[in-house]
Design brief:
By secondary structure, the chain is α/β, with parallel strands linked by helices. It has nine helices and 13 strands. Helix 4 runs parallel beside helix 5.
Length: 284
């Protein structure tokens, strides 16, 4: 029985752990909440209380990694509002423990925010299509979020390490049955980028793609790869969120058309060609 360690059993990591157990894997899961340890244990996930800091790891990290072949890192940077953590430093602190462990493959959950936005003067919703071969720092004029910058540095840090193989999953905006950005946009006014395409992915497909990677047995290599994980559905922000407001019986959002829309269309070619994955929720 192959053992997998999931660093971060939150909104995505916990249902992922359940899906891996159903596939016959043995799963170790980490949390930063003592209250959640019993939740993991009751689900037959081996629970570990682990907290990463820029220069320290709290908890039994050696035990968490012991005898696992795959490590899934699913801890998003806390860089919104006044929180400005050193996410790269966290992973730098973690890496020596991975090097000394039985881990052979690392799956790092990243984000399409590493690409920034197309900010060129002639920008329009069809101007920029992004593939995995697109160099993030080369598009537009900026890598426009601190989260994107630190995620890109972390990707490079992990993939440059020869002690293990790292595959990067760059997820689009995450939605699920209990999570949708429309709930925060309902009734708001002067929303920017009405013509920018959406780049979202449902939780069901996040898990499905990860299962495809960890269960992959075909000759095609899936480790040391980078995948854009976004549903193949890219209507404009105004079109999509207006229709979602109607569907959910919420107040319509209002968009600002005075400024130029900036954005990009994220293409997911490798998901199809390498993983042969079919989206369960293609139209969101």
């Amino acid at each position: 029985m192959t053992q997998i360690s999931i660093l971060g059993c939150g909104w995505l990591g916990l249902p992922l752990a359940k899906a891996l157990l159903e596939k016959g894997f043995s799963v170790k899961g980490s949390t930063t909440s003592p209250m959640k340890l019993s939740v993991l244990e009751n689900l037959k996930i081996q629970p570990f209380l682990i907290s990463l800091e820029s220069k320290n790891v709290s908890g039994n990290i050696e035990g968490f990694l012991e005898n696992s072949k795959i490590l899934i890192i699913d801890i998003p940077p806390k860089l919104r509002g006044n929180s400005k953590e050193d996410f790269v430093g966290k992973i730098e602190t973690l890496i020596p423990f991975i090097e000394k462990s039985s881990i052979e493959n690392v799956l790092f959950i990243s984000s399409i925010s590493v690409y920034g936005d197309d900010t060129s003067p002639d920008s329009n919703r069809d101007a920029l299509s992004v593939t995995e071969e697109t160099i993030p720092i080369a598009i537009g004029t900026n890598l426009n979020t601190e989260s994107g910058k630190q995620l890109l540095q972390t990707e490079q840090l992990l993939q440059s390490n020869s002690n293990f193989k790292t595959t990067i999953l760059r997820f689009g905006g995450l939605i699920g049955e209990d999570r949708h950005p429309m709930k925060f946009l309902a009734g708001r006014e002067n929303l920017e980028n009405p013509e920018a395409p959406i780049n979202l992915i449902h939780q069901v497909d996040c898990i499905g793609i990860i299962l495809k990677i960890v269960c992959h047995t075909e000759p095609v290599e899936v480790w040391n790869e980078t995948f854009n994980a976004v549903a193949p559905f890219h209507p404009s922000r105004e079109e999509y969120y207006t229709q979602k407001a109607v569907d959910l019986n919420l107040a319509l959002p209002k968009f600002n058309h005075e400024n130029l829309s900036v954005g990009k269309t994220i293409l997911n070619g490798k998901i199809k060609t390498i993983l042969n994955y079919t989206f369960a929720k293609p139209n969101l």
